[in-house]
Amino acid sequence: MFIKAEIWTVGRTENGMAALLRLPSSARCVPVYVDSAEAQAILTSLAGVKEQPPRMTEVLSSICKAVSIKPESVEILKSGSPGQYRSIVHFTGDETRFSLNTRTPDALALALRAGIPIFLEENISEEDSISVSMAEPEMPFATQLSRLQEELSRRVNEEDYEQAAKIRDRIHQIEERIRAGNE
């Protein structure tokens, strides 16, 4: 059985950098441990930023559009120790359905880019979830803001104003969420 989850943020845990998948109606998240490059890929996907050169998830998204195939959903399954998972991305086309095994950080970035649901194997949510204080959003938001502000500076320096505007808008959204949580 699977439980639908959403990416809440990317942040540091006591065990390292992780994408935190929020469980429905819960103050618990499942950490998916990532390295710094994977964290950046997930954060830029979360912000809707197109990177140059494109990462594999952006290339795959472009290929799917070119051949009229759509990613449909991501399933995350247990694969060893907590935070270590394997993922399956399901695709549909005009007359075809297929699935691909992929690295979980890539599957998360693709899910964000394509706007598709993420499903966790139920035992992952039971065994691997950690408590996250919803009353203190500053740490995860601060991490996101810091990375996005660096990316914004880089995009402005490269004169990529379209992407810079998207990043600026995402920064404003996060700042609004922070203000709403502090009132």
In a nutshell, what does this entry contain?
This protein has 183 residues and is of the alpha+beta class.
Describe the 3D structure:
- It is a single chain.
- The chain is of the alpha+beta class and 183 residues long.
- It has one domain: Bifunctional nuclease domain (Roll).
- It contains six helices and eight strands.
- It has an eight-stranded mixed β-sheet, sandwiched between helices.
- The chain is globular and about 45 Å long.
Number of helices: 6
- The total domain count is 1
N-end to C-end Cα span: 39 Å
The CATH superfamily title: Bifunctional nuclease domain
Q: How many distinct beta strands?
A: 8
CATH topology annotation: Bifunctional nuclease domain
List the helices and strands in order. Answer: EEEHHEEEHEHEHH
Helices and strands, with pairings:
Layout: E1 2-13, E2 16-22, E3 28-33, H1 36-47, H2 56-66, E4 69-78, E5 85-93, E6 97-102, H3 104-114, E7 118-121, H4 122-128, E8 130-131, H5 138-157, H6 161-182
Parallel strand pairs: 4-7
Antiparallel strand pairs: 1-2, 1-7, 2-3, 3-8, 4-5, 5-6
